[in-house]
Amino acid sequence: MSHLKAGDAVGARRHAMECLRVVEANGSDPGELFFAREALSRARLAAGDLPGAHGERDAMVAALPTIEDEDFRSFAAEELAKLDAVLGAR
User: Fold this and answer.
1) Distances 74 to 8, 16, 30, 32, 89 between C-alpha atoms, Å
2) pLDDT tens-digit profile of 7-45?
3) What does 12-44 look like in DSSP terms, one character per residue?
4) In angstroms, rounded to a whole number, what is the distance separating the alpha carbons of residues 68 and 31?
């Protein structure tokens, strides 16, 4: 997300993909997977890849119900709603 704030969509995508790789290599914790996908969705969006951003968003939706902690799942749902607001505007 720091790369995105700096306007570096390429760096953001590279970092988000590495983050996702690490999460998947270490058991794919649902919460970590959700937020890795969010970072990748936002990076793809910044790079102009709207279909890719939507694909990552769909992966977030799939991960959401697998987050066991109710408070954390609620927080994740709020972040998904924020992303949906951005994706809906494009």
Assistant:
1) 29, 22, 13, 14, 23
2) 888 899 999 999 999 999 998 899 999 999 999 999 999
3) HHHHHHHHHHHHHHTT--HHHHHHHHHHHHHHH
4) 9
8 Å CB contact between 39 and 12: yes
Enter the tokens of residue 30.
Answer: 């649902």
CA distances from 79 to 10, 25, 29, 31, 39 (A): 22, 24, 17, 12, 11
* Structure tokens given for 6: 């700096």
Rounded Cα–Cα distance for residues 3 and 52 (Å): 18
Structure tokens at 22: 């690490």
Q: Determine the Cα–Cα distance for residues 36 and 26; give it in Å rounded to an integer.
A: 13
